[in-house]
Amino acid sequence: YSRKGNNYLHGLDFAGEDKVIFQETHLVDGTYIMMLDYKNNSINKLCRGDNSIYLQDTDELIYYYYDEQLELYQLVRSRLLDLDTREVLAVMPERITDKSGKMNWYRLFTPINLSNGKILFQGEDLQFWIYDYQTSEKQKFGLGNEYYPLLFRAKTNELLSYKDENESYNKVLINMTTKEEVRIPQLDWGKGCTYIADYDSIIYSRGIIVPKFFYSIRSFSFENKKSRKIMDGNYESILWFKTIDYSNVAVAKVMEVPAI
Predict the structure, then answer these.
(1) Is the pTM of this model over 0.90?
(2) How far apart are CA 4 and CA 34, in angstroms?
(3) CA atoms within 13 Å, Cβ hemisphere of 105
(4) Phi and psi of 248, rounded to 5°?
(5) CA dihedral (119, 122, 124, 126) positive or negative
(6) Can you name the residues that pair with 122 across neighbouring β-strands?
(7) Peptide bond connecting 111 to the previous residue in cis, omega within 30 degrees of 0
(8) 214, 73, 104: which is closest to 167 by C-alpha?
(9) Per-residue buried b or exposed e for 99-136, using 16+ beta carbons within 10 Å of the residue's own CB
(10) Is the distance from CB of 138 to CB of 124 less than 8 angstroms?
(11) pLDDT digits over 37-54, tens only?
(12) What is the pLDDT of residues 181-232, one digit of tens each?
């Protein structure tokens, strides 16, 4: 599936065995959540929304919905078969004050799917909360807005996160029990990070300035802390297919990746 004109594709996420959900942002018409069925070579527009995650065990979406009457973003939960019915989980502030005292537009934080039926999201108070979508209980996690979590490392119960340190946005690994953090400099300037549990590794895209500026797709192993280049390329969002039949695939680009 190729973007049309100036449309912007991002937020890839699996939605079952043969489907992928992503967002397509239109410069004029806003952002829509789309579903790609790569086995049947079809694509459907689901609803308006952004920064979605799919809950496989309940067949639901959690995403940001802009309420035009209230003029604010809401984090909502909807069944995939009934997207017109939305349960509001949180209301997001439009602006925050940065360290210099200036007002900036607030960037929506994509919720992170944890384990055991829980997700991590950022609340109206700019603090992070854990939401149990099986019991609908919420619990404050205790992480400030200087962090921007990217993914959950299931093997060790840790979060990979940006951390705003004098606007450097370093990558750190945060233990979800003790809140202790470890710096991961190999992942600085990386984006599109995708965790591969089978290898306890990350696939990501990173820009290099020297000797000239270019992007490459790289892998990083948590076990040996080594990063290596897989191929050239610049991608905002990456999915890992463990097994796939390439004979009838309609995704934007499928890459054969050597062993990590």
Answers:
(1) no
(2) 14
(3) 4
(4) -145, 75
(5) positive
(6) 128
(7) no
(8) 104
(9) eeeeeeeeebbbbbbbeeebbbbbbeeeebbbbebeee
(10) no
(11) 888 888 899 999 998 999
(12) 999 988 887 777 888 888 899 888 877 665 555 678 888 999 998 888 888 8
